[in-house]
Amino acid sequence: MSKKIRLGILGGGGDSLIGVLHRVASFINDNYQITGAVFNPNLEDSLSFAKQIDIPTNRIYKDFDTLIEEELKLPAEERIQVCSILTPNFLHFPMAKKLLENGFHVICEKPMTTTYEEAKILQATLEKAGTIFAVTHTYTGYPMVRQMREMIKAGAIGDIQKVDAQYYQGWINPIIHEKDKRASTWRLDPEKSGISCCMGDIGVHAFNMIEYTTGMQIKSLLSDLNYLYDDNKMDIDGTALVRFNSNAKGIIRASQIATGEENGLTIKIYGNKGGLKWEQENPNYLYVMSDDKPLQVYKPGHAYNSDLSLDGTKLPPGHPEGIFDAMANIYLGVARAVRGEKYNDGEFPTMLDGVRGLNFIQSSVTSHQKGNVWIDLD
Ligand SMILES: NC(=O)c1ccc[n+]([C@@H]2O[C@H](COP(=O)([O-])OP(=O)(O)OC[C@H]3O[C@@H](n4cnc5c(N)ncnc54)[C@H](O)[C@@H]3O)[C@@H](O)[C@H]2O)c1
């Protein structure tokens, strides 16, 4: 019997953006075997994709209810153990809930659900289930982001006084100005996407990066969102001022109409002893700034990095690793948790991150709708 963890995949078909990232990530580190799937809502498409990527077709199911029903008929040692949810947002909640209720471990794409209420229900479901649940805030898997977290925890930059997370993309600009185009993308459809597009899709990553790296929780926010057109129901750009319980303050800037930007996620954390800066498009450089020393650049794989950071590199310094490796690090953490092995709580974002994310998204929309007022997070 293979020692690999039996992985099921929901969504992530050949037509998807994120499917390949999860498939490759699950393969790196040799922990998982894709055992069953519903890659697409149409069975023929799912089967043909399974053949294309050479996965046995006997456990490709017509929908996720059937996947659960049929898998439960199998002996536990053959059954899918972990299921990854890579579908459009509105399916995350029903899929995750049913999987948890039936004893499966879950890896779920973000935003975890489409509403904060659903997120809290899912949290209660997980408490009963007692299985492992991860939310794929992929960027937390980068070695230099992990290094940031560990340096801040060790006091390297002192007390945090300013945070600035910016996530700028431009991909909605060619879509938003034409009525037909903006009506035909699922991310701009509240039924499929949830209450927010920009804050829900990428602002939430920026929010998570702040809480992940600083270890602090944002206490309140004031947001200003942009929809550009009256018939567009979803924010495509937004700014949120954020406050903590301490005197630290900061800003989350997110946009999908920052024309020409690709995947421009930048996080800057400033303390009274120094600052740290990291950019997703150059992920192997962590900039360490101070008042009285020249700029330092930390890179992955060197012994000066923390254990958590070093655990996320596989090759000696100078061999660039990227987004596939970052996601693989999250899958590695989940594999350890599923096997009951020791793992660091920074290895993968959990249900708490998912719930906090929905609290952020909901609060951003509410703040804007109420006329840009301060809203407390729970
Ligand atoms: N972690 C990240 O950095 C990151 C990046 C991109 C997307 N995402 C998230 O991943 C999810 C998917 O995004 P995407 O860009 O890949 O979307 P997509 O539209 O490109 O792909 C969605 C896939 O789900 C399939 N699907 C739809 N309905 C289904 C159903 N009922 N059963 C099974 N499969 C079904 C589609 O056929 C398609 O293969 C979203 O929640 C998104 O927010 C996360």
UniProtKB/TrEMBL annotation:
Residues 29-137 form the Gfo/Idh/MocA-like oxidoreductase N-terminal domain. SUPFAM superfamilies: Glyceraldehyde-3-phosphate dehydrogenase-like, C-terminal domain, NAD(P)-binding Rossmann-fold domains. It comes from Cellulophaga lytica (strain ATCC 23178 / DSM 7489 / JCM 8516 / NBRC 14961 / NCIMB 1423 / VKM B-1433 / Cy l20). Signal peptide: none annotated. Residues 145-276 form the GFO/IDH/MocA-like oxidoreductase domain. PANTHER family: CONSERVED EXPRESSED OXIDOREDUCTASE (EUROFUNG), OXIDOREDUCTASE. One of its GO terms (molecular function) is nucleotide binding. Pfam families: GFO_IDH_MocA, GFO_IDH_MocA_C3. This is Oxidoreductase domain protein. It comes from the Bacteria.
